[in-house]
Amino acid sequence: MADDIKALLKNLKFSEEESVRVISSNIVTNYQGFEAWAVGKITAIEKPNREAMYRVLRSLWFTKYDVNFVALNEEVILVKFGCVEDRNRILNMMPWLFDNCLFAMLPFVKDKELETYEFNISPFRLRIYNIPLEYMDRQIAMDVGKAIGELVAIDWKDRNGGWTEFMRLKVKINVSNPLRRVVRLLGRNGVEMVCAIKYERLPAFCY
């Protein structure tokens, strides 16, 4: 539908009245608004109760300013944060779940087509077990993270105050693919170690 409209507008000849342009008197304010927006998509088999989802997310986020939700179509939702700080903090705290389903969000990009947003790429926190203490360093963390997906962050502490039981990472992964269960790590002595991956706050649809 959108492509058909674009094709029609491309060949459209404007009348005298239609040639008059409307100039926005609120350009600066609107542009700043765009910077604080995000687009989201709930990944669920059954259509969720959107109003209930909006209430739950608002109660979880504790934003400085009010958040407004606008349904752009049956799947995609525009999330209007009151400031960039609120938006960035909420995006950094992803993933967010509603009714055990992933609500994937991405920064709003001006003039970007909705179909080009990659909602299947989402960050998750995960734990890597069975790595010997002598191998728990920054380089190994980076190598393991990149092997799983796109490394976002390294958490230097587990529940005991340091890396003792597991290595904790935040990695962007493609949730359309089967989740990786292990990482095969080749030690300095040439011995292979099979390291188990445990995902935190995993949505119901991931497998």
Labels describing this entry:
207 residues, Alpha-Beta Plaits, 5-stranded antiparallel β-sheet, 5 helices, 24% helix, DUF4283 domain-containing protein
Q: The biggest beta sheet, please?
A: 5 strands, antiparallel
Total strand segments: 10
The CATH architecture assignment of the largest domain turns out to be: 2-Layer Sandwich
Strand fraction: 25-35%
How are helices and strands ordered from N to C? HHEHEEHEEEHEEEE
Characterize the structure shown.
- It comes from Gossypium aridum (American cotton).
- InterPro entries: At4g02000-like, DUF4283.
- This is DUF4283 domain-containing protein.
- With 207 residues, the protein is of the alpha+beta class.
- It has two domains: 90 residues, Alpha-Beta Plaits (2-Layer Sandwich); 79 residues, 2-Layer Sandwich (Alpha-Beta Plaits).
- The chain contains five helices and ten strands.
- The strands form two sheets. It has a five-stranded antiparallel beta sheet. It has a five-stranded antiparallel beta sheet with strand order 7-8-6-10-9, covered by helices on one side.
- A hairpin with a 5-residue loop joins strand 9 and strand 10.
- The radius of gyration is 22 Å and the shape is elongated.
- 19% of the residues are buried.
- About 2% of the residues have low confidence.
